[in-house]
Amino acid sequence: MAALVTSVLLPQKPSPWSIVGLFKISTFQKRVTPLGFSTVLGAGLLQNLLDLFPPFLLAVPKKKVSHSRKAMRSANKGLKDKHNIVNCPACGSAKLAHHICQRCLGELNRAWKTQQKAGQGIFAGAH
Q1: What are the sequence ranges of the domains in the chain?
Q2: Half-sphere exposure in the Cβ direction for 125 (13 Å, CA)
Q3: What is the pTM of this model?
Q4: What biological-process terms (Gene Ontology) are attached (predicted)?
Q5: What secondary structure, in 3-state letters, does 34-81 show?
């Protein structure tokens, strides 16, 4: 009696099983093969694979790529020769065009550091 009163007076959430019972199984009935592939529309195994994967994922090489073909493909990835190497006008050592020579840069850095330590350099007033 108490169960009847509580079910009538108190609101209840519908259970998922009651919602399933509203639909008839015959409207959603479909045949399933033992492997789990659907055959409702007569689609074969190949059609199901195309639905699962895009075509580019199914592409595979036909034969093994030989060592010479791999070497030819990667031949253009090597180091290229530099054509912009010139002589430094100050010291005569090799340097890249439009870049400062490493030897001259080292000499300039040493000169700047000695001037800065002496307090008479370009950056003496900046501190």
Answers
A1: 16-56, 85-122
A2: 1
A3: 0.38
A4: translation
A5: CCCCECCCCCCHHHHHHHHCCHHHHCCCCCCCCHHHHHHHCHHHCCCC
